[in-house]
Design brief:
162 residues, mainly alpha, 2 strands, two-stranded antiparallel sheet, elongated
Amino acid sequence: MNMQCRHIMPNGLKCRAVALRGQPRCYFHDRLHGFASRPTPAPGEPVKLPILEDRSSIQIALAQILDGLGSAQLDPRRAGLFLYALQIATQNVDRKHDIVPRESVHFVTRTAAGDELGPETGFCDIPDDCDACDERHTCEDSESEDGDDEDAVDEGYDEDQD
């Protein structure tokens, strides 16, 4: 059984994403709490923002910029440039997906360099792999020909009978 993230959002709702295996929070909130618990860098030390590849990373970057501004680590001019960059990044990301996805990784592994990797997962070239696949009868993406086709036309029906 998978557990739900136990993070409580500012609006009072509990996050409903899947928690990392053996952890109380999902991947996003685990990283967010990890960021919040880090000591404040010394003045003049560079601010390291995440790669702005999705709405979640933009939220984390925004929190870091506001924290840097509030702790006087960032001067207002530099913070303004960062916020402008976030505004541009926001226009470029896909807004169809939730900031905290309901389906996220359940566990991560780390490389020797400390980078996080999700679980290794294979995928099929649909429909090319379907005929040889052992999972074709239970796969919702399979285009196997041995099932009933719901879109099949009933050839015994005559529209002129109405």
